[in-house]
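Box 4.2: Ligand-aware structure prediction
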Amino acid sequence: MRSPSFSSWPPPLLLLLLLHPWQVCAQAPSLATSSGVSGAPDCPEACACAPGGQANCSALALSAVPAGLSRRVRALLLDHNRLGSLPPGAFADADALLRLDLRENELRWVHARAFWGLGALQRLDLSANRLEALAPGTFGPLRALRTLSLAGNRLARLEPAALGALPLLRALSLQDNALSALSPGLLAGLPALDALRLRGNPWTCDCALRPLCTWLRRHPRPASEAETPVCVSPGRLARSPLAAFPDAAFRHCARPLSPRDLAMIYLLGPASFLASLVACLALGSALTACRARRRRRQRTAAHRPPRRSLDLDPGGPASPANAGSPAEAGLGRPLEVLFQ
Ligand SMILES: *[C@@H]1O[C@H](CO)[C@@H](O)[C@H](O)[C@H]1NC(C)=O
């Protein structure tokens, strides 16, 4: 994309570029890098790489993640570019990355597996993009993440599943989005969270905001007034700081069922129905089997003595007890036995 210096360019091309001042300006900052080594092995061709493992690909009008990333890259600066989306495994070749800067791009879409392989990443900056939603599991692979910025996007919802469990995350920036509430489970997956930036969102101060208000009260910060998140609706609470609501303010709120409770209810209902059905069937068939067995035993017990008496009886088939239905015979024989 870029030649090492102006001098090696053929004069007509230089002339053409001079006629297009914007393009020259766009190229100028990258040409000005003095310490960086451009196009070195293990360095993406368009970027300037410093010995510490920093690949500086800032402000190069890139529309895709540059090729040529490797394990040697520890910090990848891709800010102020034109990335519109991140495909699956976009950084899989740079799996030793500690810092990834994607600030000020045009990101609308991040694939759920875009950050696969980045198990060592500690700092991720996605601020000032155009994200409206994040797929479940997007940040799941980032088990070492400490700082995450999603500020200055268009997020109206942030599901707990998108963040997942980030055990080491200490700072989360969500300011200047379109959030009106935070899902109750979101903060539960972030045990190490200490700094949460929330201002610049249209917070609706109702019962759904209870977990957030509780969290804010437990993590007081000496924040300036501009940093303090405030309610936007309902009107009577507009501009009330979120952290100012005592727990008593939520006394009228019924405790909502957590997704886990709901899942239990949905699972236990049909499961217990099936279990009782199976139990009934088992019990019924056991009873039937028992009764049949008892009847069979009774019948054999009833059959045996007369047979013995028949054997003793020389008359055999001529005996009147032999005639008639089995029921009659069954009734008749014990009497016979008794009276003999
Ligand atoms: C990265 O490169 C840009 C443009 O060359 C420069 O302005 C910026 O200071 C560099 N960033 C770092 C951290 O070196």
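In the box above, the bound molecule is 2-acetamido-2-deoxy-beta-D-glucopyranose. The pocket of 2-acetamido-2-deoxy-beta-D-glucopyranose is lined by residues 29-30, 33, 56, 58-59, 77 (CB under 6 Å).
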